[in-house]
Amino acid sequence: xxxxxxxxxxxxxxxxxxxxxxxxxxxxxxxxxxxxxxxxxxxxxxxxxxxxxxxxxxxxxxxxxxxxxxxxxxxxxxxxxxxxx
Amino acid sequence: xxxxxxxxxxxxxxxxxxxxxxxxxxxxxxxxxxxxxxxxxxxxxxxxxxxxxxxxxxxxxxxxxxxxxxxxxxxxxxxxxxxxxxxxxxxxxxxxxxxxxxxxxxxxxxxxxxxxxxxxxxxxxxxxxxxxxxxxxxxxxxxxxxxxxxxxxxxxxxxxxxxxxxxxxxxxxxxxxxxxxxxxxxxxxxxxxxxxxxxxxxxxxxxxxxxxxxxxxxxxxxxxxx
Lengths: 85, 226
Known about the structure:
A: mainly alpha, Arc Repressor Mutant, subunit A
């Protein structure tokens, strides 16, 4: 049995569903009602959003790939080989 | 805000066309860029189907061969990334089945095999608290509005990468596809054969974990002013 009011503990588990637009109408209303009264959860949701943005800028291209040289050889072989155009 | 971030990482058709033209012309830089962008991700996805890192790397290598062999026939009906990843998944699955002990991505352990809650339960007041049951016991440190200079610093980025790398393989794959590569939930579900609900659970665990690591790092290093 859930309380009518959403708790902070419940909200932090629903934040992804909320951001994905997958929260059923009822829960969405409770979620948003909670945010109007709880600056700490507003901060939490903002942290998740910032995290998502940071993950997007962080990983790409930086990952050193020791296989690149090997794969480049593969590309050169392909270039030299016959092409089925 | 979230949609914008995702939009920015989404490939455009024009990028694909330019890249395919460059590959066909034998442009090594273009190939290296493609490898940088997708190789590590492909290994992660392959690991959802085969048992060892070595086999996963082999499957990915075969995939690159198949991509090159097929690039002249690539018509752009699907996005380049989707085309590449489908080749990969087909090969990884075949290989996994041949390995006798096939471990499909969708059945790698239960959905509840990994982490606990998004936030340490000790951070909340008890459920029987007279006034504020299950509410924050103390204000979370505020860092969501810190300037980019701070959050994009090399050390912070290292910390984020380490947090992602430490995730179970399925969470790592989902957060990489969704938040790094900007795939849509539908694309991820299709590729990894996940239900929408399970995709969200994995994404939720992954994002919550990375957030918690980021908080630990930012708050350890110095007091984050409220």
